[in-house]
Amino acid sequence: MSYKFLHEIVNEAVSRNIPFWKVVLEENCREGGISEEESLEKMRGMYQAMKEADQNYDKAARSASGMAGGDGALLETFRRQHNRLIGDFLTKVMEKAVKMGESNACMKRIVAAPTAGSCGVIPAVLLTYEEERNVPSERMVEALYVAGGIGEVLAESAAISGAKGGCQAEIGSASAMAAGAVTYLEGGDEEAIIHAAALALKSMLGLTCDPVGGLVEVPCIKRNVSGAVNAIVSSQMVIAGIRSRIPPDEVIDSMRRIGSLLPACLRETSQEGLAITPTALGKKQEVS
After folding, report:
1. Structural contact between residues 207 and 166, judged by C-beta atoms closer than 8 angstroms
2. Per-residue confidence of the chain (288 residues) as pLDDT tens digits?
3. What architecture (CATH level 2) is domain 6-287?
């Protein structure tokens, strides 16, 4: 993508009086040499794949390691209870985030958004929003372009890979993308979109990548929940009128610098952090 900074997308949208998502759509068409309808159809397909992964969740499925599976069903049961501290919306977001992460671990079809390890964040937020707010599917596709544009800038200017930037680059990026997307759906303008992304990303800076046994299961799946809820909270702060004191593009650059400072052992090598706790090492021996 030719845009390396979020403010470039905002400036283009404002100068031409078109929405953020439209700028991203046009850039996708230019980059891929495809028509707008072809691009839209591909994005519709991705959103449908997210829906199907959610609908086809199998509560009995377990990953080959035995570390993942069944927790999505526990959250579904929890959601149907009435003695909860949190409301239906966030509870459903939590449920869908875990279900998507577990489906990935069990080798089901998912959408890497932006990575397989962070695949639960964006679907959890957007699918819940559509269900709870009864939003037309085409508007949800537009929100995916918003998320995609933010993700492209993150990939260009920082990283979206845990091996390169730690988990902040995976769950953090997904959370920022989801925050921008839901802010668009909530009626936020272009500046609001990128400030929601900034607030979400700021809360994830420095997050290490330390998967048990090198598998994106523990602690990755539960981190999808944190990323999804963080996206909603960040969006709501922006809708309330709050803005990031640090400009969004400077937040992204900070993630880049932090990622480069993280030692290799904390960047998806499973050589430190949670990955070398006694329990994790014991589990690694079981599955090796």
Report:
1. yes
2. 789 999 999 999 999 999 999 999 999 999 999 999 999 999 999 999 999 999 999 999 999 999 999 999 999 999 999 999 999 999 999 999 999 999 999 999 999 999 999 999 999 999 999 999 999 999 999 999 999 999 999 999 999 999 999 999 999 999 999 999 999 999 999 999 999 999 999 999 999 999 999 999 999 999 999 999 999 999 999 999 999 999 999 999 999 999 999 999 999 999 999 999 999 999 988 887
3. Orthogonal Bundle (1.10)
Helix (H, G, I), strand (E, B) or coil at 69: coil
d(CA 57, CA 51): 10
Residue 108 exposed, middle or buried by CB count within 10 Å (0-12, 13-18, 19+): middle
8 Å CB contact between 190 and 14: yes
Q: Which tokens sit at 144?
A: 């995916």
**pLDDT tens digits, one per residue of 62-80:** 999 999 999 999 999 999 9
Residue 126 near residue 181, CB atoms below 8 Å: yes
CA gap 131, 137 in Å, rounded: 10
* Residues, the chain: 288
- CB atoms under 10 Å from CB of 138, counted, come to 11
Beta bridge partners of 209: 267
Contact criterion met (CB below 8 Å) for 118 and 178: no
Domain ranges of the chain: 6-287
